[in-house]
Every structure is written in C-alpha cells, then in structure tokens.
Design goal:
Shape of chain A: globular
CATH topology of the largest domain in chain A: Aminopeptidase
Distance between the termini of chain A: 18 Å
Oligomer: homodimer
Largest interface: A-B, 101 and 101 residues
Radius of gyration of chain A: 23 Å
Largest sheet of chain A: 6 strands, mixed
C-alpha cells in the first residue's frame, strides 16, 4: 500500500491542476444555459477515468448526464465499493460577493477558491485520484465503482431512475456517499444521517400590474407586505415551524443518540461561532445546535423579490412578490407530504385581498443509516488512521437526495464520507477547499479500501 | 383668443413629435448614470422655450438642473401665473413588463406609450405649447413663468433652495402645480391636497456571509424571514399602520369635506376597479376609498430583495435582506417625525438574532390648499369650459414635494391642475398619455389664463 501514498504525494501538483481544470467548467445544473458545461464536465471526468485504466462512460438521461466508471480487477472474491459523488454545482456570480471569478480557480494560503471547490468537485477528484494511485502502484484490494451525477443541486431524479434500472451493474457490498463536509479541520466526524430537502416557490399576486403607490396606496393590499405577513406566520417566536402537522413524522431521538450527538457539541459550537457567526443563535429551544442541524427539520426562505429593490428608489405598489422556500427534512418526513402541509397552511393564511400560489420545485428525502454497521465502523477506523483522531458521530444538516435510492436499490451497507470543512462556503461566495484536507481525504480513502478488504473477509 | 385654439389644433402633429422627442430622453433622476440625460432634457426644454419667444435658461444646482423660462410682456398691470412641473422620470426597463422600449415612444390607439408620458412630460409640454399658442397668435392675457425641476422623483431639495433664494424672480399672483392626473377621462376633478412621501430603506443583517441552508438551517435567524416578521408587524389585520404615534398629526376630516369627497366616489370606485383591479379592496375600514387615497397616510413596501430569487434554485441562507419602504403623508404629518417613529418602532421589533437598520432616503411634505380661494375657483371654471363638466373636489394620493415650499416662499394662491388620467400607468410599465386629453389640457390652460386675467381685475 505504501506506494499508493507515495504516488499521491509525488503527484499532488498535477492533481491540483487537474482539480482546477474541472473547477473551470461552470457545471451549474439549475440553470439551463449551462447544459453544455454540464456535458463538458462529464466528458472531462470520463476521459480522466479512462486515462487511469477504468472503464468509464457518459450516460445520457432525460436531464443531466451521469458519469459511471468501474475497475473490477480485484475479482469476484474481493469486495466491491461503489462511491457516489456529484460534479454539478450551485449558481455563482462575482456580484454575489466573490473576491474573484467563481469559475477561475485561485490558489491562496493553501486553499483553492472556486464554485464547487468543496461542494463537491474536490470530493469527486479525491475518489478518482485515489483510484489512480492504487492502479498506478499495484492492485487495489477492492473492486471500485464510481458514480457521479450532474443534478444533485437540482433533483437527482434521473439518477434515481438509472439506479433503479441498473441494480446489477451497480451491485456492491459497500456504498459510499462522498459529499458534504466535516465540522472541524482536525477532528473528523462520521455522519450517519442526511436531511432531505423539498424546494418550493411562493408567489403572491395583487393588482394585475404595478401601481403608483400614491394613486392607490392605502386601498390595495401590497403583495410584498402580504407575502411578508404569510412568511411571518410560518414560525413561532421560538423558531418552531407552525405549519400544522409539520413535525408529525419526525423520528424522535433516544437518550443514547442524544448522548452521542452531545459529544460533538464543542466542535459544533465552535464552528457555529466561526462560520455562521450570526448576532445570536436561533432555533428550537428544546434541541441543542447539533440536533437542530441534523435531527430537526427546517423551513427556510432562500430568496425573496418583489417591486423595485435596485439602486435608487421607485415608489411603486408592486403587482406581485415571490419567495423561494425550502424545507430540510429528517426521517421519516417526506417531500410530498411536507409540500402539501405547507401549501394547505398557506392557503389558509392567505387573505382574500391577494392570491397566493405555492409551487413544488424539487424533492429529496431524508435518510438515517445504521451507525453500528461494519462498513460505518470501517469508515471510523479509516478516518482515525487518516486524521489521527477517532471521529465523532454526527448528523449532517445537508442533503444528498440519492442516498435513499441507493440504499433501497442496492441493498448495500451505506457509509457517508467527505473530506472538506463545513466553513468552506458551500453554496455561498468564496467557496474553497483546503488542500491539506484534500490530501488527507485521499489517504483516508486508501485506508478505507484497506479496512473494507479486511472486514468483508472475501 | 380663438386663434390660440386654432393654433393648437393646426399644430397638433408637430406638438406630438416634440413630445416624443422629449420622451426619448431617459431623464431618470434617481439613477446617477442618467445625469447626462437629465441635462440633455433640460437643455432641450430651454431651447424650445427660447424658440417660442420666452426668456429661458438651465439653472445648475447641487443636484439636477432647474429649467426656468418667463414671458413678462403682459406688463405689470396684468397678473402673473407661475406654473411648476417636472421633467425627470422614474426608472424603467423593458423587463419590468413593458410591451416596448420605455424610452422609444410608441403611438397607438390615440395614446403615446413611454416612461414620463403621463408623469409628467405631457404636462410640461402642455404648458410650453399653450404659451407658444398664445405668443404665436397674439398677446397672452397674463405674464407667464414656467419652472420645471429635474428631481421631483427623488427629493426636490435643490428646487426648494432655489425657490427660497429667488422669491423676487419667481414672484406671482397664482402658482399652478401641474402634475398628477385625474380620476376619470371625462369627469375632471379639482385637487386641493397632495400627500407627502418619505422614503426609507430597511436592511436586516444576519450572518456575515451567505450560508449553506443545510449546514446551518435551524440555528440562524434567516434575515429574509426576520425582515418579513418586522414588515408583518407594521400593519394590523384591518390595514391600519401600527407604528405608535403614526396618526397623531393627521388632520381630521370634517363633515362638510367628507360630503364633498363622497361626491367623487362613483368615479373613484370605477377607477379602482378599472386600474387597481386587485382581488379585493383593502385599507382602513373607517374611511372610504377617496379618503384612504387622499386624506390618510400609508406605509408601503415598494420593493424587497434577499437571497437568491432568480431563475433556478439556490438553497442559501442569506446574509441580509433589504426592503424599500415609503410612507405617504397627509397634513400635518412631517417626513422627519414619521421616519423617527418608524425607526424607533422597528428598533423595538428587531429581535437580538439579527441587526436592522432603517435609513432615511428622501423626504417630501404633504399639503392642503384652500379650495375656496379665487384661483381654485378660476381653475374650476377653466376645467368646466375645457372638459364640459364641472369638476369634483378631490384629494390626490400622489406627492409633489415642492408645493409646500412654493406656497411658503411665494405667498401666491395655489392651484393644482393636471390633464392626464390616473389609469395611465405612472411609475409602472406601459405608462402612456391620451392625446385627446393632452389637447383638452392645453385648451383648459388657455381658459385658465383667461379666467385669472378676469378675476384679478388687474
């Protein structure tokens, strides 16, 4: 195995340039104008996997293409590890507050800044480069399957279909979800839960066109105001979501799990103060920060627009107002049911002076995996070897919609692994990746393959 | 006098082209990038006034230039009428919902569509063209002073200074405010009150940068949500403004005035249904529509922005959110006091989980003029001759900030006149002017000069 580690060290400069090349492709899945970029990113990944000796192809779907590659040279007697990742990214514009072009990677202070640096192109590249190191220096101890999708940031629905239709091809003993990031740069954590996310658009309509606020102000219910009034009724003053039935399907935490989650609290608190850094903490008072993030659902306003909010002033009474709303879900909530609950409550809140419409945009279900399984335990040991510290158990607040489908269709043991730090600006401006963590991530993946080869006894 | 009417009819095609030429200049006063256009519009007006025989000049100020022209050939024995108008316009972009370029006038079905068509370039041009008709066909019965400003849509503060410093030059017997528009195309109304307007920006700050809504959702008070919660507390469910002290300085209506205002209600109601056309009426239940528009103050959300509200979806937890808020004021409210009341109330409403800031952007005071004065009565008769119907008294919902300064500094009788229809999309997309009303407006102005010459007995 030593040679694979040497290979990673010896080739780190080239690996870095390859990561930058991938980051330069603006593979934004939520904006149709980037469809060609998505395809370009997929083809780039396939070319790299073929170069290192994997069988790989771009698989077209009704949406964005899937990238799949495999190396089965360890033989039927060896275990097979399938790792999932995604190569699509969130939208980004320099005007959002970036210090440099989000699609022109900049290396500074041991970090690379670019959209997708942490979410999730460094994870994708860590997987390919680990495979490359093993293939270039000897024989990997496991069969390797890599599955990268191009619509994680939108819906994953075409990947779900592909997984359901390709159970044999994707068959594996262990399925790794490689996305998300860790709470601390030095203290790894081992995730076993992901939140789902259902996204929606709420639009409020008033007069058929914008009006002069002098001519009609005081006689028309302003749609921005009406939207604000609806939004204000979606939480109580303690931060609980007030949508009737919203929490009904949430699995309660037992005492043992709460005790495990509490162990990570110093790091979660520190991260909150370093990264979130809001004027004060907020949220359901009956749950600690870790639980609020990983074990409780949310209702978030991701964006709002209406009337004239640009430079200058326009005393308009707007015709409409729009809010983008998403709910992070936890087991056993479902997207469809949550959408219906929110929709019905908003219908009830909407006064007759305006019209409101809640549109379902995309869905993604939550998942909890068995943290006591042999594969998760192998992951714990791999992190301990890679980082030098035993990980805490953690529940992640983010979402990887496909996890549930992979578990159901493949029946494999699931493991959540990621090698970045949560304070790296995923989804925001100046997203970046720490290069030392990226390096450790590749090493940890080598240890993980080794641990899996040992435990499966194959 | 007959020849002046003939002149207006004979030259209507040319007048129309001249109006279009002025409309093509995007003299947007609230956006600094249009400063050169503002100057171009001012110079265009001065050139036209000089051409018809008036002494005219562009007067620079610390802000946008003032346009002033006069013809004093009627002599000291004749009365002097000073008319105020404004040549600046609100911002407009085709993306706001315009059917055609807002700064490329389109003539269709007896209307001209362009930003500024109704607010207020047609009014400005009606004044110049009336003067032209009188000067070209004989001797006007009154001395004519025309004062056009370039920052009505922002603040009028430099005009106020100019008026205070040029009392002698602007001295007049009657001061006409020519802005705003009528409730009905056939039934004129005679305004005697204007609302003031104070504009403000409310910004709510949460975390120092946008966050991933999965990583921190549930632990950070979302600034868009917090903004919505603040906005939602600014009105009660009946539409009353809840800011403590907000109504304290509002002059109550007496029974006689309410009876006069009620006479216009059928037209106000019809206009509301034609133009506002919201799903239902809204506002203070103790006041009818006319009173809500003209005799009651408002607090309006003119625009809102925060997070990602564009095409696609971005599950961000935004760092900040912004609302543009304006209050329409009625006598004896003041901008400064109103700003302070709103600011203090918002400070009280803001939870410790976010930081909020209310910035004062611009001010404009309300005014009520004596509707029984000889000049207003002359205006009534002029409208009756021009439109064939005696006007109703009306209180306008819009604002002409300079009115109060003109009254105070010049000590003249004030008259409010305007020749457009309220349903012409002022401040919104597809703003337009009816050409037949524009024509009638010029005729009414000729009658008005005649009426003033008779009553002043000079």
């Amino acid at each position: 195995m030593t040679t694979a580690f040497d290979y990673i060290h010896a080739n780190q400069g080239r690996f870095r340039e390859e990561l930058k090349a991938l980051l330069r492709i603006p593979s934004v899945s939520t904006l149709p104008k980037h469809d060609a970029d998505i395809l370009r990113a997929a083809e780039w990944l396939v070319a790299d996997m073929r170069r290192i000796g994997m069988q790989a192809e771009v698989i077209p779907t009704a949406g964005k293409p899937i990238v799949y590659g495999e190396w089965l040279g360890a033989g039927k007697a060896a275990p097979t590890v399938l790792t999932y990742g995604h190569y699509d990214v969130q939208p980004a514009e320099i005007a959002d507050g970036w210090d440099s072009d989000p699609f022109e990677p900049v290396e500074r202070d041991g970090k690379i800044y670019a959209r997708g640096a942490i979410d999730s192109k460094s994870n994708v590249m860590a997987q390919i480069k680990t495979a490359e190191a093993l293939l270039a220096t000897g024989t990997p101890p496991v069969n390797i399957k890599l599955l990268f999708e191009g619509e994680e940031e939108s819906s994953s629905e075409n990947l779900a279909l592909f997984v359901a239709q390709n159970q044999e091809r994707l068959r594996c003993d262990v399925c790794v979800i490689c996305d998300g990031s860790m709470t601390d740069r030095e203290q790894p954590d081992m995730g076993y839960a992901l939140r789902g996310v259902v996204s929606m658009e709420l639009e409020v309509f008033g007069p058929p066109r914008d009006l002069h606020s002098g001519a009609f102000g005081g006689t028309v219910h302003n749609p921005v105001q009406a939207l604000a009034e609806i939004i204000a009724q979606l939480h109580d003053t303690d931060g609980r979501v007030t949508v009737p039935g919203f929490y009904d399907d949430v699995l309660p935490l037992d005492a043992e799990e709460r005790a495990e989650l509490a162990k990570a609290m110093p790091w979660i608190e520190a991260e909150w103060h370093d990264v979130a850094a809001a004027p004060a903490q907020w949220g359901e008072p009956d749950y600690n920060l870790h639980e609020r993030i990983g074990a409780r659902p949310t209702l978030e306003i991701n964006g709002i627009a209406g009337g004239f909010a640009g430079e200058g002033f326009k005393t308009v009474l707007p015709a409409r107002a729009l809010a983008k709303i998403s709910c992070r879900l936890v087991a056993d909530q479902t997207s469809q049911r949550t959408y219906e609950l929110v929709r019905d409550y908003i219908a009830q809140l909407t006064p007759p002076t305006v019209r409101a419409e809640l549109r379902l945009i995309s869905i993604g279900e939550p998942v909890v995996i068995d943290r006591h399984s042999p594969a998760v335990q192998a992951g714990l040991r791999a992190y301990e070897r890679g980082w030098g510290r035993r990980p805490h158990y953690s529940r992640a607040g983010g979402s990887v919609p496909i996890t549930l489908d992979l578990r159901r269709e493949l029946g494999a043991q699931m493991v959540l692994m990621a090698f970045g730090y949560k304070g790296c600006g995923a989804h925001g401006p100046n997203e970046h990746v720490y290069l030392d963590m990226w390096q450790r991530g590749m090493e940890t993946m080598l240890y993980f393959y080794d641990e899996i080869a040992r435990i499966t006894g194959k």
